Amino acid sequence: MSIRYAIPMLLVMQHVLSVLIVGQEPDKTIEKKAELLTMQVLVVDPDGHPIENATVFPSGLRTKVEPGSHWGWSEPLHGPIPKLQTNAEGLVALPYPKYVMEEIEVGTVTISVEHPDFVSFREDRSVDDQPAKIELKIGFRIAATAVDAETGAPIKQDLYGLVSGEARLSEWKLSENGNLVSPVFEPNKTWFRLIKAKPGEPNLYSELIEIDPTDRSRVLLRDVKLSKGTRVAGRLDDSVTRPIRNGHVAATIVRRGSDGQEFNWNSKWMWYDKTSIAEDGTFVFESLPTGEILQLLPVCDDWVPLNPTKEEALPFFPDAAERLSNTFSLPQMVRLTGSQVETILKMKPATSVKVTVTDQDGKPLSGVEVASWPNQLWFDGGSNILGSAYSISDWLIQSRQDGQPNFTRENRYSAKTDEHGIAVIHSMPPGRTEGLFAFIKGYEMPLNGTDREIRIDLKEGVVTEVTIKMQPEGTDVLKDEAFEGVANNQPEFMQLLEHLRKALKW
To answer: Staple partner for 213: which of 85, 121, 140, 175, CB 3.0–4.6 Å?
Structure first.
């Protein structure tokens, strides 16, 4: 049996965030590899000429029965993500799995194509397209130099660029004379910011610059001034019991495109950061871009963020304030003005889930991994598992170094059963309905409609108790036919909610 690796639909078009949201599969060994098929992909330039040595790889999968769903590539099940080079005819045979899980067939592959001389490509193509023809666009590059706004000294090291809707951090090149050159971007209006990021020092930022590259292959910015941002000194409100354990704050900044610009994911400039919470409840962000709205979500053991009220959200995100929902944990906000701002973050007591897992005969099963996936939602941004966080500064620095970016992937919402078949998941947000999944090799949860999970109602001050009876693996198989009369016959808005719910799970 396999578990989906899913990318939330809200974030499919955000290259920066897609890595954030991909669910982490429970630790296990998959002995039987999935069946792989191949589809022909043809890559050409705007004149129809084949492009050689373009890198092609699958960055997502959609099923035939749920074309609105989006799945990631599971390396334990499908092997390493294949990254292949086109030949002289611009062709490549791209592998893809026949099934995303059990017997649910793949109908569409999200294909990514990269070439240093063209705009990167990422779109869906049907597996029936033979070949799937992809035309790469001619774009533009940004070339920039920067100076320290306080001293006027040129900045020749530790200089980085970040544009809206892009995460191709490693493709920016910094020369010894301090000239920073970007990869090729699509010729649309773009938000751009220069950053100086050096470990142990506060970041320096430029103003947010809007670039219109119309009819230009290169945009040159000389001696852009960079200044220290706003320091954020915060603490958790006094109702949160000290000492704080296992706590951190996830932070996000989202800037939309200019007035009159059509809203889309690529028109947004986004910044992410994280910091730990001390035992006394205090936390600090040393330097964040001044003038922006900062969204903050704190997590720690046995406490969860308190969602803002409509009145609290109105000054920052008036449109979203009219439709607040308790389905997600929502951020608290502060405007970054001056050299320092102070803020107090509100939290409320979390709740717990006590899960008893048995075999088909009612005997307790030990060592079963039980997991849930409560989500947080950023205003004007995407969603991910509550507490998920990472630092763009770290990613910028590591983009020029070896090693993987440091990403806080939340594991606090999972536990393993003891000898009595009991597991307790703490730190769950009350007042919501969440999914619950159990896994152990050799067993599976019974099918529940079109999935293998149960839904649990989390109440304040009450430990929710549930029992899951497992069955031998392979007792039944989820097939495409299971979706007939279920997902496809729901009202449109219910189908969307179902896709979102499933996309946000492990």
So the answer is: 140
